[in-house]
Sequence to fold (162 residues):
Amino acid sequence: MADWEINRPLGQCSGSGQKIEPGQEYYGALVETEQGLQRRDFSGEYWEREKPSVFCFWKTKLAAANEKKQLFVSDDMLMAFFERLANETEPEKLNFRFVLALVLMRKRRLKYDGTKTEDGREIWSLRVAGEKDLVEVVNPHLDESQIEALTSQIGQILQADL
Fold:
């Protein structure tokens, strides 16, 4: 399993180097790099002006150092990440999508429907809550410790309690 570079908001725009102050809105994003998906933060001003190329993003506010962290990622945003990864084939992204599927199943946004094997791969069919169409996700056969580690890493990247 690939390690992800996880960084917390540092209070600085990755694009301009400008300081992001506590309480100020900014954009958190996952960016594809040679090392895999990495988190980057961008000030609202830089974001609007430069429109950086990112894999996915969310808008949030920088918490003060003594402030309790808020959960910033909604179920709809998790579903959007899941859908965005639908056609990816890289192992890191397949693992990411599989763990998102498990999280979304726990949140009752996805329901397991069945399993099939194609080209030696186990593929789960899942039904999106309230919809008739099925979506598929490859089961990369991660062990429990890999799933836990990846869930924790995704939660840290997205600043959410998954």
Observations:
- DSSP finds four helices and six strands in the chain.
- The chain has two domains: 1-70, 75-143.
